Amino acid sequence: MARNRRLILSSPSEVWSLLSDGHRYGEWVTGTQRILAADAHWPEVGARLEVRLGTGPLTIDDTCVVRICEPRRRLELEAKADPFGAARIAMNLIPWGENTLFVLDWHPLLGPGTRMHGFPVDYFVKLRNGMMLTKLARIAVREHDAEPAGRDVPEPPQGPSRALPG
C-alpha cells in the first residue's frame, strides 16, 4: 500500500467541494488527459467516472467507481484500468484546526499490481500521488483565498461632500 498525507490550508468542506465534482478531477489527478464521463450523481456510492490517462499516444482509459462516500470525511474509489487491473483509492479528510489533513491510501486489488506490490511500485505510486496532492492543495488554497465577486470594487471616498463650483 502507498500512503500519502498532506496538510491542505482549506477546510474539509472546501476540499470536499473539489472531490465532489467529477469533472474537476483532471485539474489535480496526475496523468489525466481528460475526463470522458462523470455520472450526474457523483460522488454517491455506485457513481462512475471515466478518465483517459497517459501522455501523447500512450493512453489508457480508467473507470473509477465510488465504493464508500461520507461527505466531507471519506471517499473510497475502485479504479480499473485494463490490462493493469484494479486498485482501491481511499481519501480521508481529517479536520486539522481550520484546515484539512488529507490522507490518501492506494492499494492494488486485481492484476499485475498485486504481484508487484511493494518497492518499486509503491514508491512510484507515492511519487505520483504526492504530485497529485500538491495540485489539489494549490487549487483548494487558491479557491479559499479568492475574494468574493465584486469585493475588489473600490469603496467611495469617505469625508465631507463638497459641491462643485457652478
TrEMBL record:
Top-level taxon of the source organism: Bacteria
InterPro entries, per database record: START-like_dom_sf (IPR023393)
Residue ranges, annotated region (Disordered): 144-166
Biased composition (Basic and acidic residues): 144-154
Protein name, entry field: SRPBCC family protein
Organism: Streptomyces albus
